[in-house]
Amino acid sequence: MTRSGDELVPLVDYIVSRHFSETADAPQSASHPSAAVKLLDGVCQHFARLTSHWQVLGFVHGVLNTDNALLCGETIDYGPCAFMDHFDPQACFSSIDRQGRYAWPNQPGIMHWNLAVLAECLLPLIHDDEETAKHAAQEIIDQYPARFHAHHQHWLAAKLGLDRLTEPDHSLIQRFHDILASHELDFTLAFRWLTEVANESLQHTPLPELFSAPEELSDWAEDWQRRRQLNTVDPESVTRAMQFVNPAIIPRNHLVQRGIDLAEKGELDWVERLVQRGRKPFEWQADDLEWARPPHEDERVTRTFCGT
Predict the structure, then answer these.
(1) Band of the pLDDT at 1, cuts 50, 70, 90?
(2) Cystine design at 254: which of 1, 234, 293, 295 (Cβ 3.0–4.6 Å)?
(3) What is the per-residue pLDDT across 49-71, written as a single tens digit (0 to 9) for each?
(4) Cα–Cα distances in Å, from 112 out to 72, 139, 163, 214, 245?
(5) Across 272-283, average pLDDT
(6) Nearest-CA neighbor of 73 among 117, 19, 119, 33?
(7) Half-sphere exposure of 186 (CA within 13 A, CB side)
(8) Phi, psi torsion values for 6, nearest 5 degrees
(9) How far apart (Å, rounded) are the C-alpha atoms in residues 158 and 155?
């Protein structure tokens, strides 16, 4: 690549027109400095939103180096990815991530780093003057934490049946996480338990056979219910919405592993059932004792690999 970055112009043109055309106020040609700024800003927004979803669903990508972060705002290389079963605030599955660089709590920061590396590559297209280009890029990079935070707080509030998060809510959430961690409770089912409790539908689901709330969690839930009474934005709709942000099932690691084992033998019927069940994760179905249950001790997947 030349110092001017001319070779990047067709690439930026293509990406902007394909993935970020919704912001039509910016010029469409990468020969204008605003096109590269538009690209960087679009990727920043997409990464902030994507990573916030991962965090609230307990998903760990596993290998978030820059070549696995796409300019369309998505990621690739899902070999070592995994969903948390029991809650682990330092969840890390990838066998090659020995230092936990890409562990669950580090994912937002890693995406911020990846964005900074992208910005460095785009500097020649942002402005001819290097300092001006750096300043423009830094302004966008610095917006990432706030954007991630806004998305994360929105989804976390929705998962807890709250119309918004206030400062006192953070201690309530921390207590919830502490209880999940100390009792090794299932992350997905714990949130779904809150959903069914809030909607008074617990006994109409398979959940009592899948999840048992310890006394400490039940005590916490009393404080949580009192907090929910302070909701001011249509409390009933906020409660119902919990059913569409807290999945009943996820592609659990032991199920995925079983699917891989069967597929290698050419036995695809069960794999197809798994795929079809995963298409409707927010509703209960008749056979969900199979799909929603946490793994038995001998089924736990604690290490994942890039080759899978």
Answers:
(1) very low
(2) 295
(3) 999 999 999 999 999 999 999 99
(4) 15, 13, 28, 37, 25
(5) 97
(6) 19
(7) 26
(8) -60, -30
(9) 5
Q: Which residue among 6, 41, 67, 219 is the active-site one?
A: 67
C-alpha span between 28 and 245 (Å, rounded): 36
152 alpha-carbon distance from chain centroid: 9
Question: How much is the pLDDT for 24?
Answer: 43
pLDDT for 116? 98
Burial class of 128 by CB neighbour count within 10 A (0 to 12, 13 to 18, 19+): exposed
Q: Is 13 a catalytic residue?
A: no
Q: What is the mean pLDDT of residues 192-212?
A: 97
Six-digit token string for 52? 């916030």
Cα 225 to Cα 306: distance, rounded to the nearest angstrom: 43
Both structure tokens of 144: 């990432």
End-to-end CA distance of the chain: 35
